[in-house]
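Incident log, structure service

09:12 report received: a user says their structure output differs between two submissions of the same chain.
09:20 pulled the input from the user's history:
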Amino acid sequence: MTKKIKCFATKKGIEPIVLHKKTLQRFSPILISSLMMFVACKQPSPPQTKEDWENVFNQAVQEHTDLSGSMIDFSDAQKLTDTNFNHLPENSENFWEIVKNGLMIIKDLQTSPTLSYMQKKDYQDTAEKMVKKIKKIDQTEAVDLQNPDNLRAFLYFEKVVQFRDKHNEIFVNIPGWIDEQNDFFGRDYLELEKFINIAQNNPGIVNFAKAFYNNSARFIITEKDSAQANALSMEILDDWLKKQGIYDKNLWYYDNVKDYEAKGQKNHPLNELNYWYKRGNVVGNSLGVDGSGYLGYGLCSPKGLIIIHELRHAEENPPKSGEKPYDNLKSKALDNGRLIDQSGELSELGPALETLVLSGLIYKKIHHIPYNHVVNYGANIKVGKTEIPLGEIEMWANEMMQKYPDRSISRMLQQEEVYMQLNDWGNGKYKGRTLKNSKTRNS
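09:34 re-ran on a clean worker, output below:
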């Protein structure tokens, strides 16, 4: 009648597999029997009862040192009052209000007829991962509301509260989308803020950052070298991702800048990280890259280096809103009290210096120049009346990155030796380097 057969397991909680007529006609009886055995071996459904769910999450927190001995009995969750979805925990009570209500909703969703077994498992596995990473302030019961792991947990459970059984809204599967379920999102935002603090007391850093970032001469790869440079950059990207502990290759998508230019669109979403953080929308980043490394306006940068640069921003974008709790009645998103780099150049400085260093390595490999030679690119970075050769900046930054090989580029910038040199350059103090190992561009 229905032209299909259902294969049931003997254990409770295991969903049947449906075999359609075309499947029965296509495969042999031996393969069909093997598939029936697979049903019997499937893992049982997630915990169904309140007691089962309490055991799952209590075990998770007991295994984690910061919450050792704590019990997350989410049955005592306060009645949900926070429905503004402004992505910012007001205090510890508000944090647990969202987390516990999110856990209650996930428990209820385990019996939802609209979700598959794997979708229910997505909710459960992600919740357990988030709970394990929650951290308290030392010697207190308060949750650290600045900790990026805690902020990502808040965003996840807030999303559960907002979207409930809308699985595709919570678990976004779109190339180039980066959100709280990516562990590297926002993990270094506090390091960037520390560097911005240093720069506020050393105004020369700001001067240099503006002069360097806004000078297109820092893009040293020409279109003539772009094919070789792109190939080399993807090798560098693979190595960089491994060192950063990032294994998802679905973090960017490719498009064509020239298609936008042909339509007269100067503003396009490519080669930059689009960051979403306002209330009502989900928090996340979207990354699109031109597959040829074309930046527009005749400029090029190897595509692997573009991806590294933008993922640096994803690491340093705060996983929270820019709004304050009392801004819920306002239409404009405001600063939530963290230091804001209004111009953007300070947040660009570290990634841009790294791009210059990696571009230099690619350029030297293509043109058979020893990596420790200073190249005369025929370009200077002008700060006031002072001009600093681009090749010297590249070699200095390379030396600093090797001397301070930190995963966070902003932690490297916090080293006194580093920020004082940037401050001196920004204040017009340039002594020059010995150029005995110099090479002229394209030599």
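09:41 both user submissions now match this output. Likely a transient worker issue. Closing.
09:42 reviewer note: The CA atoms of residues 9 and 41 lie 8 Å apart. The chain has three domains: 4-41, 50-171, 189-440.
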